[in-house]
Write a structure and sequence with these properties.
Elements: E1 8-14, H1 21-29, E2 38-44, H2 51-59, E3 65-69, H3 75-85, E4 90-93, E5 98-99, H4 104-114, E6 119-127, H5 133-141, H6 145-148, H7 152-155, E7 164-165, E8 173-175, H8 176-182, H9 193-203, E9 208-219, H10 224-236, H11 238-245, H12 255-269, H13 276-301, H14 307-335
Parallel strand pairs: 1-2, 1-4, 2-3, 6-9
Antiparallel strand pairs: 4-8, 5-9, 6-8, 7-9
Protein backbone atom coordinates (compact mmCIF):
# COMPACT_ATOMS: atom_id res chain seq x y z
CA UNK A 1 0.00 0.00 0.00
CA UNK A 2 1.18 3.54 -0.83
CA UNK A 3 0.57 5.81 2.14
CA UNK A 4 -0.63 9.34 1.45
CA UNK A 5 -2.08 12.10 3.56
CA UNK A 6 -4.14 13.76 0.81
CA UNK A 7 -7.85 13.98 1.41
CA UNK A 8 -9.53 12.65 -1.75
CA UNK A 9 -13.02 13.40 -3.03
CA UNK A 10 -14.47 10.86 -5.46
CA UNK A 11 -17.23 12.01 -7.79
CA UNK A 12 -19.41 9.53 -9.67
CA UNK A 13 -22.21 10.68 -12.00
CA UNK A 14 -24.84 7.94 -12.27
CA UNK A 15 -28.21 7.43 -13.90
CA UNK A 16 -30.01 4.09 -14.23
CA UNK A 17 -26.95 2.06 -13.26
CA UNK A 18 -28.69 -0.65 -11.23
CA UNK A 19 -26.66 -3.41 -12.89
CA UNK A 20 -23.31 -1.72 -12.18
CA UNK A 21 -23.62 0.44 -9.08
CA UNK A 22 -23.01 -2.23 -6.44
CA UNK A 23 -19.83 -3.45 -8.14
CA UNK A 24 -18.62 0.14 -8.38
CA UNK A 25 -19.22 0.93 -4.69
CA UNK A 26 -17.68 -2.37 -3.60
CA UNK A 27 -14.57 -1.61 -5.66
CA UNK A 28 -14.30 1.72 -3.82
CA UNK A 29 -14.66 -0.03 -0.47
CA UNK A 30 -11.88 -2.44 -1.46
CA UNK A 31 -9.40 0.34 -2.26
CA UNK A 32 -6.17 0.29 -0.24
CA UNK A 33 -6.45 4.03 0.44
CA UNK A 34 -7.27 5.12 4.02
CA UNK A 35 -11.06 5.51 4.19
CA UNK A 36 -10.62 8.27 6.76
CA UNK A 37 -9.15 10.31 3.90
CA UNK A 38 -11.99 9.61 1.47
CA UNK A 39 -15.39 11.04 0.67
CA UNK A 40 -17.52 9.62 -2.14
CA UNK A 41 -20.27 11.52 -3.95
CA UNK A 42 -22.68 9.35 -5.92
CA UNK A 43 -24.62 11.91 -7.93
CA UNK A 44 -27.82 10.43 -9.31
CA UNK A 45 -29.61 11.94 -12.30
CA UNK A 46 -33.14 10.96 -11.24
CA UNK A 47 -32.75 7.23 -11.93
CA UNK A 48 -35.91 5.24 -12.53
CA UNK A 49 -34.51 1.70 -12.23
CA UNK A 50 -33.80 1.44 -8.50
CA UNK A 51 -30.26 2.86 -8.59
CA UNK A 52 -31.11 5.50 -6.00
CA UNK A 53 -32.43 2.93 -3.52
CA UNK A 54 -29.27 0.83 -3.88
CA UNK A 55 -27.10 3.89 -3.21
CA UNK A 56 -29.07 4.70 -0.07
CA UNK A 57 -28.38 1.23 1.29
CA UNK A 58 -24.67 2.08 1.23
CA UNK A 59 -25.00 5.64 2.54
CA UNK A 60 -26.78 4.31 5.63
CA UNK A 61 -23.86 2.00 6.35
CA UNK A 62 -20.88 4.15 5.34
CA UNK A 63 -20.75 7.80 6.42
CA UNK A 64 -18.12 8.77 3.83
CA UNK A 65 -20.47 7.77 0.98
CA UNK A 66 -22.93 10.53 0.09
CA UNK A 67 -25.93 10.60 -2.21
CA UNK A 68 -26.66 13.76 -4.19
CA UNK A 69 -29.43 14.41 -6.71
CA UNK A 70 -28.68 15.84 -10.15
CA UNK A 71 -31.90 17.48 -11.34
CA UNK A 72 -30.39 18.27 -14.74
CA UNK A 73 -29.57 14.56 -15.30
CA UNK A 74 -26.40 15.21 -17.39
CA UNK A 75 -22.78 14.41 -16.57
CA UNK A 76 -21.26 17.92 -16.46
CA UNK A 77 -23.92 19.14 -14.01
CA UNK A 78 -23.18 16.13 -11.80
CA UNK A 79 -19.43 16.72 -11.93
CA UNK A 80 -19.75 20.40 -11.06
CA UNK A 81 -22.20 19.67 -8.26
CA UNK A 82 -19.72 17.22 -6.78
CA UNK A 83 -16.74 19.56 -7.16
CA UNK A 84 -18.61 22.35 -5.36
CA UNK A 85 -19.42 19.99 -2.47
CA UNK A 86 -15.98 18.35 -2.35
CA UNK A 87 -13.56 18.97 0.52
CA UNK A 88 -10.61 17.08 -0.93
CA UNK A 89 -7.40 18.62 -2.22
CA UNK A 90 -7.53 15.88 -4.87
CA UNK A 91 -10.66 15.09 -6.89
CA UNK A 92 -11.13 11.83 -8.77
CA UNK A 93 -13.92 11.20 -11.24
CA UNK A 94 -15.11 7.61 -11.59
CA UNK A 95 -17.57 5.99 -13.97
CA UNK A 96 -20.09 3.33 -13.00
CA UNK A 97 -19.36 1.34 -16.19
CA UNK A 98 -15.86 0.36 -15.06
CA UNK A 99 -13.98 -1.91 -12.66
CA UNK A 100 -11.02 -0.49 -10.72
CA UNK A 101 -7.97 -2.26 -9.23
CA UNK A 102 -7.50 -2.05 -5.46
CA UNK A 103 -4.52 0.29 -5.80
CA UNK A 104 -6.29 2.65 -8.21
CA UNK A 105 -6.67 5.65 -5.89
CA UNK A 106 -3.36 5.24 -4.06
CA UNK A 107 -1.33 4.86 -7.25
CA UNK A 108 -2.90 7.82 -9.04
CA UNK A 109 -2.50 10.04 -5.97
CA UNK A 110 1.12 8.96 -5.70
CA UNK A 111 1.87 9.82 -9.34
CA UNK A 112 -0.08 13.08 -9.19
CA UNK A 113 2.27 14.18 -6.40
CA UNK A 114 5.42 12.55 -7.76
CA UNK A 115 5.07 14.13 -11.24
CA UNK A 116 3.67 17.42 -9.93
CA UNK A 117 0.93 16.80 -12.48
CA UNK A 118 -2.47 18.43 -12.84
CA UNK A 119 -4.32 15.31 -13.95
CA UNK A 120 -3.36 11.64 -14.13
CA UNK A 121 -5.31 8.62 -15.29
CA UNK A 122 -5.17 4.93 -16.06
CA UNK A 123 -5.21 2.80 -19.19
CA UNK A 124 -8.62 1.41 -20.11
CA UNK A 125 -9.17 -2.17 -21.17
CA UNK A 126 -12.53 -2.43 -22.88
CA UNK A 127 -14.39 -5.57 -21.80
CA UNK A 128 -17.72 -7.11 -22.70
CA UNK A 129 -20.91 -6.59 -20.76
CA UNK A 130 -21.99 -10.07 -21.90
CA UNK A 131 -20.41 -13.00 -23.74
CA UNK A 132 -22.35 -12.75 -26.99
CA UNK A 133 -20.50 -12.42 -30.32
CA UNK A 134 -22.11 -9.01 -30.74
CA UNK A 135 -20.94 -7.71 -27.36
CA UNK A 136 -17.45 -9.19 -27.77
CA UNK A 137 -17.10 -7.62 -31.20
CA UNK A 138 -17.99 -4.16 -29.87
CA UNK A 139 -15.38 -4.43 -27.11
CA UNK A 140 -12.75 -5.44 -29.69
CA UNK A 141 -13.73 -2.67 -32.12
CA UNK A 142 -13.23 -0.11 -29.34
CA UNK A 143 -9.74 -1.42 -28.55
CA UNK A 144 -7.91 -1.10 -31.89
CA UNK A 145 -6.33 1.78 -33.81
CA UNK A 146 -8.71 1.20 -36.70
CA UNK A 147 -11.62 1.51 -34.30
CA UNK A 148 -10.64 4.46 -32.09
CA UNK A 149 -7.58 6.05 -33.69
CA UNK A 150 -4.52 6.80 -31.57
CA UNK A 151 -6.23 7.28 -28.20
CA UNK A 152 -3.33 6.36 -25.89
CA UNK A 153 -5.42 5.34 -22.88
CA UNK A 154 -7.32 2.72 -24.93
CA UNK A 155 -4.33 1.29 -26.78
CA UNK A 156 -1.34 1.39 -24.43
CA UNK A 157 -0.92 -2.04 -22.87
CA UNK A 158 2.62 -1.54 -21.57
CA UNK A 159 3.47 -2.26 -17.96
CA UNK A 160 7.12 -1.26 -18.25
CA UNK A 161 6.50 2.41 -19.12
CA UNK A 162 5.80 4.25 -15.88
CA UNK A 163 4.09 7.34 -17.29
CA UNK A 164 3.36 9.13 -20.58
CA UNK A 165 2.34 12.73 -21.09
CA UNK A 166 -0.93 12.74 -23.07
CA UNK A 167 -3.79 14.99 -24.18
CA UNK A 168 -6.50 13.21 -22.19
CA UNK A 169 -7.14 10.29 -19.83
CA UNK A 170 -10.34 8.47 -18.88
CA UNK A 171 -12.16 10.04 -15.94
CA UNK A 172 -9.17 11.73 -14.25
CA UNK A 173 -7.46 12.36 -10.92
CA UNK A 174 -7.15 16.15 -10.57
CA UNK A 175 -5.57 18.60 -8.18
CA UNK A 176 -8.34 20.66 -6.62
CA UNK A 177 -6.66 23.93 -7.56
CA UNK A 178 -7.04 23.04 -11.27
CA UNK A 179 -10.73 23.94 -11.01
CA UNK A 180 -9.91 27.20 -9.27
CA UNK A 181 -7.48 28.09 -12.08
CA UNK A 182 -9.44 27.18 -15.23
CA UNK A 183 -13.03 26.77 -14.06
CA UNK A 184 -15.45 23.86 -13.94
CA UNK A 185 -16.74 21.46 -16.61
CA UNK A 186 -18.74 23.10 -19.38
CA UNK A 187 -22.41 22.31 -18.76
CA UNK A 188 -23.39 22.84 -22.40
CA UNK A 189 -21.37 19.75 -23.32
CA UNK A 190 -23.61 16.81 -22.57
CA UNK A 191 -20.82 14.69 -24.06
CA UNK A 192 -17.10 15.40 -24.51
CA UNK A 193 -16.94 17.66 -21.46
CA UNK A 194 -13.78 15.86 -20.31
CA UNK A 195 -12.07 16.36 -23.70
CA UNK A 196 -12.84 20.08 -23.64
CA UNK A 197 -11.73 20.41 -20.03
CA UNK A 198 -8.43 18.61 -20.62
CA UNK A 199 -7.73 20.64 -23.77
CA UNK A 200 -8.40 23.79 -21.74
CA UNK A 201 -6.09 22.49 -19.04
CA UNK A 202 -3.31 21.80 -21.54
CA UNK A 203 -3.78 25.26 -23.07
CA UNK A 204 -3.30 26.78 -19.61
CA UNK A 205 0.02 24.95 -19.23
CA UNK A 206 -1.31 21.98 -17.29
CA UNK A 207 0.27 18.55 -17.47
CA UNK A 208 -1.72 15.33 -17.99
CA UNK A 209 -0.14 11.90 -17.58
CA UNK A 210 -1.25 8.38 -18.40
CA UNK A 211 -0.08 5.70 -15.94
CA UNK A 212 -0.08 2.51 -18.08
CA UNK A 213 0.58 0.14 -15.14
CA UNK A 214 -2.82 1.06 -13.66
CA UNK A 215 -5.57 -0.54 -15.72
CA UNK A 216 -9.29 -0.16 -15.41
CA UNK A 217 -11.77 -2.44 -17.13
CA UNK A 218 -14.44 -0.50 -18.98
CA UNK A 219 -17.70 -2.19 -19.99
CA UNK A 220 -18.50 -1.64 -23.66
CA UNK A 221 -22.07 -1.19 -24.87
CA UNK A 222 -23.63 -4.59 -25.44
CA UNK A 223 -25.43 -3.97 -28.74
CA UNK A 224 -25.06 -1.95 -31.92
CA UNK A 225 -28.00 0.35 -31.18
CA UNK A 226 -26.40 1.56 -27.96
CA UNK A 227 -23.01 1.77 -29.71
CA UNK A 228 -24.53 3.95 -32.44
CA UNK A 229 -26.22 6.30 -29.95
CA UNK A 230 -23.07 6.68 -27.85
CA UNK A 231 -20.72 7.44 -30.74
CA UNK A 232 -23.28 9.69 -32.43
CA UNK A 233 -23.41 11.81 -29.28
CA UNK A 234 -19.61 11.94 -29.01
CA UNK A 235 -19.44 13.12 -32.60
CA UNK A 236 -22.33 15.55 -32.27
CA UNK A 237 -20.71 17.62 -29.51
CA UNK A 238 -17.29 17.64 -31.20
CA UNK A 239 -17.85 20.87 -33.16
CA UNK A 240 -19.07 22.64 -30.01
CA UNK A 241 -15.83 21.66 -28.27
CA UNK A 242 -13.88 23.20 -31.15
CA UNK A 243 -15.93 26.39 -30.95
CA UNK A 244 -15.38 26.73 -27.23
CA UNK A 245 -11.64 26.15 -27.55
CA UNK A 246 -11.39 28.42 -30.58
CA UNK A 247 -9.34 25.88 -32.53
CA UNK A 248 -9.36 22.30 -33.84
CA UNK A 249 -8.36 19.57 -31.39
CA UNK A 250 -7.04 16.11 -32.32
CA UNK A 251 -6.94 14.77 -35.90
CA UNK A 252 -8.50 11.43 -34.90
CA UNK A 253 -11.73 13.25 -34.03
CA UNK A 254 -12.28 14.43 -37.63
CA UNK A 255 -11.53 11.27 -39.59
CA UNK A 256 -15.01 9.67 -39.18
CA UNK A 257 -16.69 12.84 -40.54
CA UNK A 258 -14.35 12.82 -43.55
CA UNK A 259 -15.19 9.15 -44.06
CA UNK A 260 -18.93 9.87 -44.08
CA UNK A 261 -18.38 12.72 -46.56
CA UNK A 262 -16.22 10.47 -48.76
CA UNK A 263 -19.19 8.12 -49.06
CA UNK A 264 -22.05 10.62 -49.23
CA UNK A 265 -20.64 13.20 -51.65
CA UNK A 266 -19.65 10.84 -54.53
CA UNK A 267 -22.94 8.94 -54.16
CA UNK A 268 -24.94 12.16 -54.43
CA UNK A 269 -22.85 13.43 -57.34
CA UNK A 270 -23.24 10.12 -59.13
CA UNK A 271 -26.91 10.98 -59.68
CA UNK A 272 -25.67 13.87 -61.84
CA UNK A 273 -22.58 12.24 -63.34
CA UNK A 274 -22.43 8.46 -63.03
CA UNK A 275 -18.59 8.02 -62.94
CA UNK A 276 -18.68 9.44 -59.40
CA UNK A 277 -20.26 6.13 -58.43
CA UNK A 278 -16.91 4.45 -59.07
CA UNK A 279 -15.27 6.89 -56.64
CA UNK A 280 -17.83 5.81 -54.03
CA UNK A 281 -17.27 2.15 -54.89
CA UNK A 282 -13.49 2.51 -54.62
CA UNK A 283 -13.82 4.21 -51.19
CA UNK A 284 -16.13 1.57 -49.74
CA UNK A 285 -13.98 -1.28 -51.07
CA UNK A 286 -10.84 0.20 -49.48
CA UNK A 287 -12.66 0.72 -46.20
CA UNK A 288 -14.16 -2.76 -46.10
CA UNK A 289 -10.81 -4.31 -46.99
CA UNK A 290 -9.06 -2.55 -44.10
CA UNK A 291 -11.95 -3.33 -41.79
CA UNK A 292 -11.82 -7.01 -42.75
CA UNK A 293 -8.05 -7.19 -42.20
CA UNK A 294 -8.34 -5.75 -38.68
CA UNK A 295 -11.39 -7.88 -37.91
CA UNK A 296 -9.68 -11.04 -39.17
CA UNK A 297 -6.51 -10.32 -37.17
CA UNK A 298 -8.44 -9.70 -33.97
CA UNK A 299 -10.69 -12.70 -34.44
CA UNK A 300 -7.58 -14.88 -34.70
CA UNK A 301 -6.15 -13.27 -31.55
CA UNK A 302 -9.43 -13.99 -29.77
CA UNK A 303 -9.56 -17.51 -31.25
CA UNK A 304 -13.07 -17.04 -32.64
CA UNK A 305 -13.25 -16.78 -36.43
CA UNK A 306 -17.01 -16.16 -36.21
CA UNK A 307 -16.24 -12.69 -34.81
CA UNK A 308 -15.11 -11.36 -38.21
CA UNK A 309 -18.47 -10.06 -39.53
CA UNK A 310 -19.47 -8.78 -36.09
CA UNK A 311 -16.25 -6.79 -35.62
CA UNK A 312 -16.49 -5.45 -39.17
CA UNK A 313 -20.02 -4.22 -38.47
CA UNK A 314 -18.89 -2.76 -35.14
CA UNK A 315 -16.24 -0.71 -36.92
CA UNK A 316 -18.74 0.54 -39.48
CA UNK A 317 -21.39 1.47 -36.90
CA UNK A 318 -18.93 3.38 -34.70
CA UNK A 319 -17.36 5.28 -37.61
CA UNK A 320 -20.62 6.13 -39.37
CA UNK A 321 -22.37 7.21 -36.16
CA UNK A 322 -19.50 9.39 -34.94
CA UNK A 323 -19.00 10.96 -38.37
CA UNK A 324 -22.71 11.60 -38.90
CA UNK A 325 -23.00 13.06 -35.41
CA UNK A 326 -20.08 15.40 -36.06
CA UNK A 327 -21.54 16.67 -39.34
CA UNK A 328 -24.98 17.30 -37.81
CA UNK A 329 -23.29 18.96 -34.83
CA UNK A 330 -21.35 21.17 -37.26
CA UNK A 331 -24.64 22.16 -38.91
CA UNK A 332 -26.32 22.89 -35.58
CA UNK A 333 -23.51 24.60 -33.67
CA UNK A 334 -21.38 26.24 -36.37
CA UNK A 335 -23.83 27.09 -39.14
CA UNK A 336 -27.14 27.46 -37.28
CA UNK A 337 -25.37 28.64 -34.09
CA UNK A 338 -27.61 26.63 -31.76
CA UNK A 339 -26.82 26.45 -28.04
CA UNK A 340 -28.15 24.61 -24.98
CA UNK A 341 -29.14 21.65 -27.12
CA UNK A 342 -31.06 18.98 -25.22
CA UNK A 343 -30.19 15.40 -26.10
CA UNK A 344 -31.20 12.19 -24.39
CA UNK A 345 -28.13 10.39 -23.08
CA UNK A 346 -27.49 6.87 -24.33
CA UNK A 347 -27.01 4.02 -21.87
Amino acid sequence: MIFQNNFVSIIVPVRNEKDFISNLINSILEQDYDKELLEVFLIDGLSTDGTSELIQNYTQKYKFIKHLTNLQKTVPFALNLGIKQAKGDIIIRLDAHAKYPKNYISTLVNYLNKLNADNVGASAETITASNTLKARSIAIAMSTKFGVGNASFRLNKSTSIKFIEVDTVPFGCYRRDVFDRIGLFDEELTRNQDNEFNERLKKAGGRIYLIPSVKIKYYARENYTKLFKMFYQYGYFGPLVDLKLGRPTRVRRYIPALFVLSLAVPLILSTLYFPFFYVWLFTIIIYLTLSFIFAFTNSIINKTILLIPFITWGYFISHISYGTGYLIGFLDFVILKKRNVSIKLSR
